[in-house]
Amino acid sequence: LALKNLGHIGRLGAWSEMAALKNCVSITFVNTSGFGILMAPHGGTDRRLSANPIAIGVPIENNDYLVLDMATSIIAEGKIKVAKNKKIKLPEEYLLDGYGNPTNDPEKFYSEPLGSIIPFGGHKGFGLAFMVDILSGSLTGGNSSHPENQNAHTVINNTLAIIIDIENIVSNQYLQDDVNRLTQWVKDSPKAKGFNEILLPGEIEKRTKNERLKEGIPLDDQTILDLKIIAEKVGMKNVEEEIKSLLNLS
Fold first, then answer.
1. What are phi and psi of 194, to 5 degrees?
2. Predicted confidence (pLDDT) at residue 244 exceeds the cutoff of 70
3. String of b and e for 135-166 (b: at least 16 CB within 10 Å)?
4. What totals of helices (H) and strands (E) does the chain contain, helices first?
5. For the chain, the helix, strand and coil percentages under 3-state DSSP, each to the nearest 5
6. Domains assigned to the chain
7. Which residue would you say has higher pLDDT here, 102 or 150?
8. 3-class state of residue 142 by DSSP
9. How far is residue 207's CA from residue 222's CA, in Å, rounded to a whole number?
10. Which of 35, 111, 205, 248 lies deepest, with the highest CB count within 10 Å?
């Protein structure tokens, strides 16, 4: 399934979840067609690619699913913005400043000259990011992440999705049983120092979702202020109280 010139499609893993609930395996690639360029190539010093995420979803027993949803950059920009708002450093040197020097300071990502994010896994992450750009941008006809195209200054997503009907290959029962065996085998590995358990793709996100549904979404002061300013521009009153009520915050 090749789609081009879309608006922002949101969290990529959500589409994998929907496919899994229809008993399909999915592999999805996305680029931004020249807008939202954030990541330096391995060995480069400035922004040349977007975060170019990939998502893989597999249905499992009990109407559940495993979903890998990840950017090919070592960190998502949203986490950089959160660190900037909280005025804290990143845990590692995930960024390059505008002069190509490694840094853990989120301020330098947004300061002129703009900084960039490095790919995860060095040359391997960069290689995957580059191929994602080709599959989702060039192959769909929606353009890759070079700035010399008509959509370079617009939020445009291009997507290539591979959807697999399991029953055309193996039985559902076989897939579930084999995934269960693999899961048990992997989770039974002796734990490294500092680890209490081995988590599968998507397990942290599921736990976080359940926690947020129960306890609300924590927001830093800067984000609340930003929401308040936007809300007041469209005529909302008592904005901070409304935000806290909606997010179940005390």
1. 90, 0
2. no
3. bbbeebebbbbeeebebbeeebbbbbbeeeeb
4. 8, 8
5. 40, 20, 45
6. 2-74+118-215 (3.30.1370.60), 217-250 (no CATH)
7. 102
8. coil
9. 26
10. 35
Kindly state the tokens that stand for 93.
């040197």
Buried b / exposed e over 33-67, threshold 16 CB at 10 Å, is bbbbbbbbbbebebbbbbbbbbbbbbbbeeeebbb
Condensed to tens digits (0 to 9), the pLDDT of residues 28-85 reads 999 987 678 899 999 999 999 999 999 999 999 999 999 999 999 999 998 999 999 9
Whether the predicted pLDDT of 242 surpasses 70: no
For 76, 219, 220, 240, 242, the CA distances from 224, given in Å and listed in that order, are 20, 7, 6, 7, 11
Per-residue pLDDT reduced to its tens digit, 89-126: 998 899 999 999 999 999 999 999 999 999 999 999 99
List phi, psi (to 5°) of 232. Answer: -65, -30
Residue 121 — left, alpha, or beta (φ > 0 → left; ψ -120 to 50 → alpha)? left
Name the burial class of residue 114, with classes exposed (0-12), middle (13-18) and buried (19+) by CB atoms within 10 angstroms of its CB.
middle
SS3 188: coil
What's the one-letter identity of residue 20?
A: A
- Give dist(CA 147, CA 243) in Å, integer: 37
Report which residue type is found at 249: L
Residue 246: predicted pLDDT: 63
What is the reported pLDDT for 60? 94
- Rounded CA-CA distance 6/160 in Å is 12
Beta strands (DSSP E) in 122-240 are: 157-165
